[in-house]
Amino acid sequence: MSGLSGKVVLVTGAGRGTGRVHCERFADEGADVIMLDHSDAADDLRATALRVEQRGRRAVLGTADVADLAAVTAAVDAGVERLGRLDVIVANAGIHSPGAPAWQITAQDWQRTIDVNLTGVWHTVRAGVPHVGSEGGSVVIISSTNGLRGTAGTAHYTASKHAVVGLARTLANELGPRNIRVNTVHPGAVATPMVRNPATYRRLRPDLDDPTEADAAEVLTARNLLPVPWVEPVDVANAVVFLASDHARYITGTQLVVDAGLTQKTT
Ligand SMILES: NC(=O)c1ccc[n+]([C@@H]2O[C@H](COP(=O)([O-])OP(=O)(O)OC[C@H]3O[C@@H](n4cnc5c(N)ncnc54)[C@H](O)[C@@H]3O)[C@@H](O)[C@H]2O)c1
C-alpha cells in the first residue's frame, strides 16, 4: 500500500501537462488534491478537478501565480481549510521561455524564470510546510535534467532548476526531524505542451523551414539511450507518487531522474 489513501496533496501548475497527471495519479491512490494554477488557466484547472472527482476524490481549486507569495499563501490556506490537512507538496509549476545564449537573455525573461521556477517553489513550500502535521509528509520538487547539467541556450531555466536542488537539500536537513522528506524529480523531455509546440520544433530543427512533431522527435530520440523521444507525463507522475508514498519512507534529499537515459548517454 502506498499510504496515500485519505491524504491531502498540494499540486502547483495543476491545470495541464504533468501537473494534471500528478493530480490524477494521487487521486488513483485515494488522495484528495489542492490544485493551484494561475488565473489564465482557470478552465484547465476545472478540467483537472473533474478528472479527480471522477476518481471519487475531492479537488479544491485555487488560482494564484506562484511568483506571488501572498496569493499562494491565501490559496493554500483556503485549500487546507476545506480539506482539513496537508500531507504532500508537489512544487510542479514551471516555465521555459525560448532560448538564447546567457549573455543575450533579456533581463525580463531571466527574472520571470527565476521568479516562477525558483522563488515560486520556495513560496509553495513556505505556504505549505506549516500545514503539514506531526505525522510527517513529503515534499517533491520538479526540477529537470537541466537541474543536473547545462545545455546551451537555457541559462535562466538551467540556473533555476539547479537552484531548486539546493533548496531541496537544505529543506531535507531542516525537515527531516519532523519526518518530512524532500526530494527532487528530474525529467528529460516530457510529452506536454511545454515541448510539443511549433516553437520548440523550430528550435530543435533549425535546418527545416516548417518542422513537424515527427521531425523534432527524431532529434530528441537521438539524445536518449532508450528509443523514445520523450517520457509521458504519467512516467513523471509515477516517480512523484513513489517519492510521496510509504514505499519511499526513508528516501530524502535525493534526485530521481526520469529521462529515458538522456543524462547518461555518452555517444
Ligand atoms: N515538459 C518537459 O519536457 C519538462 C522537462 C523537465 C522538467 N519539466 C518541468 O515539469 C514541470 C511541469 O511542466 P509541464 O511540462 O507540465 O509544463 P506545462 O507548460 O504543460 O504546464 C505547466 C503548468 O504550470 C502552470 N504555471 C506556469 N506558470 C505558473 C505560475 N507562475 N503560477 C502558477 N502556475 C503556473 C501552467 O499554467 C501549466 O498549467 C515544470 O516545472 C517544468 O519545468 C518539464
Question: Could you please describe the fold and organization of this structure?
Answer:
By secondary structure, the protein is an alpha/beta fold. It folds into two domains: 8-194 and 231-256, Rossmann fold, CATH 3.40.50.720; 196-229, no CATH class. It has eight helices and seven strands; from the N terminus they run βαβαβαβαβαβαααβ. α5 links the parallel β5 and β6. The structure holds nicotinamide-adenine-dinucleotide. The site of nicotinamide-adenine-dinucleotide has 30 residues, from α1 and α4.
Helix and strand content put the structural class at: alpha/beta
Q: What is the β-strand count?
A: 7
Q: What is the CATH architecture term of the largest domain?
A: 3-Layer(aba) Sandwich
**Lateral arrangement of strands in the main beta sheet:** 3-2-1-4-5-6-7
Number of helices: 8
CATH topology of the largest domain: Rossmann fold
The proportion of residues in beta strands is 5-15%
| Integer-rounded radius of gyration | 18 Å
CATH class of the largest domain: Alpha Beta
- Taken in chain order, the helices and strands follow as EHEHEHEHEHEHHHE
DSSP helix fraction: 40-55%
Q: Quaternary state, please?
A: single chain
**What is the rounded distance between the termini?**
40 Å
Q: Any idea what the shape is?
A: globular
